[in-house]
Amino acid sequence: MATTRTLTHAGTFDLEVADDRITAARPAPGDPDPAPYTEALVRPSRARVNRAAVRRSWLEEGPGANPHRRGREPLIEVELDRALELVAGELLRVRDTHGPQAIFAGSYGWASPGRFHHAQSQLKRFLTQFGGFTASEGTYSHGAAEAVVPRVLGRSFRQLLREHRPVDEVAQHTELLVSFGGFPSANRYLVNGGTRRHVLREALLAARDRGCRFVAISPTRSDLEEELGARWLPLRPGSDTAVLLALLHVLITEELADLTAARRLSSGLDLLLDEVVSGGSGPPPTPAWAAEQSGVAAEDITALAHGMAEARTLLNATWSIQRTEHGEQALWALLAAATVLGQLHLPGGGFGLGYGSSGSVGAPVCHPPAPALPPGGENPVTDHIPVARIADLLLERGGAYEVDGQRRRYPHIELVYWAGGNPFHHHQDLHRLERAWTRPATVVVHEPFWTATARRADVVLPATTPLERRDLGGGTVDATLVAMPRVLDPPAEACDDHELLRRLAARLGFEQRFTEGRDVDGWLSWLYERFRAGDPTLPEESVFWDRGLVHRSPVTGMRAGWEAFLADPAAAPLPTSSGRIVLGDPAHAEQGLPVTAAWRPPTEWLGSATSTQLHLLSPQPPQQLHSQHDEVDAEARRGERGREPVWMHPEDAQARGIADGDDVRIHNRRGRCLATARLTTTIMPGVVSLATGAWWDPARDVDGGTVCRRGNPNALTRDVPTSTWAQATSAHTCLVEVEPAPDAPQPAPHGPGPTLHAPASAGGR
Question: Which of 46, 255, 707, 747 has its Cβ near the most Cβ atoms within 10 Å?
Fold first, then answer.
């Protein structure tokens, strides 16, 4: 039995391997808060893509044949070379007939923590060199923040994340930490690119022991709050902006704000003052008014504002609060509150956007950004879409839309090429996405497992998992670089994404440009040398592979530009429209954007719900990264029926005749899914929470309709943008009905995809 170490997005693990299978996994030593993900690494998948497969109609009749049958007719296994020939021919047809903008590189997801085998980078490098592609921009996680932060603070959201106050500073100096969205435990384990040490919990406990007080404003009580002794202020989902405006109202009208500092550091303050004092676009946002919108008592809002003014206060927003309709407003209001509070310059004070949302936010030291695969040139296609607008792109060909003050048009997409993600899990309103999925002539997917996306492809190319290839890993600012040796042999014809694309590039005549003459080991050496160029203290590459991990040197001055601005805004202005923090901008009106933070009630929320509707939240699942590993241990985690649990308050359950452990049907006009009811008082009445962990498993319900048997909440969520500012996802703006489902159909066991074996010569065009 051999022991080896690897890196995942949830951390570093030591694996025991025997007979080409993992027999045990444990967190690597030295992690103060290891992630509970070991079981998923041990259990083998029953839904593996072993060979290339092609949808029967597409194989026999050509591109565009019967696209409505995607996911409903067999995929026929063919030799990998045959599948690659078909894909190469289709790429040429689409590029030469429709132009490269007709190819959409939909690659989005957390496929691998490795720096080289990063599916998005590999695919986009390939398509850039092929002639270009339509791209997506932004993230589902924090799409609204990516639009707000540049306009308000003059930096990209990713730059802001590197400038966050480190959590050890919070541990030493913060006296009051107010977090809109709480401190969700599952999210703190996850870091894009992995991490060696999870430090948030350790820092928050140190702050608690020093006397820091915590207030969590959220519809649900977080797992961390009990040990932190946090005070929970339950609020209606989507009403964060109302509470923040009311806090501003108290700070300003009771002269608790530092308006002198705010005027020095910001522009548009008078627009904000008009909104929060007199109610420029509606009633004045007093605590009493905010209580009506949010359910948070007026006296609690007033007391909190006083506490914020009296203590060294850090205002934090988890990324969840901006995934609502008008989610941009909550972030703008929080930045405004931190600015007028006057503590931006104080250690442990100011604001945070994402403490608790990812293990990388507030990492105690910053390191040189990790190098990545070079893009292979500049994409000649300038068309791009906000990432959450994939269904609009396919359904509204040529349609106009607005984003961040710009007017754009959706291009005509003929071919979707997806590698490293599962949109039929993470996108909203999956029934609408299914309709959109019938529009392109061809869908190509690289995938190790028979996900819902792979089952809806025309061509599936079998990809390896991170454990089946050699790589080097380390988060973009993480202190440790981890060697990732190949742990398992790939099954059948599975290849890594680079190898699949190399073979395609060879058929299309640009293999040398794509590889630059390097094999995988050559690229790993090239990447390691880029690490060494940024940090000369790193040892030779051979030493790195022998040791298995090395530590990178920290860099200083990551906050220098921000601190220089705080010290002298005139001498070190921000790259915003005014050179200062933008609390209001009248020019926004000409661009169709809000001129200052203001309350805009969501379309669906408890303020407009019927007597039987509940508000659905869809958070990150515990012990799982999105849908990853669902095919491995769903039954072990959820019980023999394998359904996702839906958490609801006992009062709501009793009113509907639901007992703990019952099957329930959750539905609205968009769709329906099944779940297992779990009752808890850690969620406010009127709200239910169904994590985004289950694979989408649509089947015929008892009345002939379609239902997701495993409990994917995106069968129910709205595919509607936050606003034209960001065009980001508003997944948490969702009303549903919940009822007992004693007649619920049982989920089908995860297993092989809908394939038929066929000789390599089967089908022709």
Answer: 707
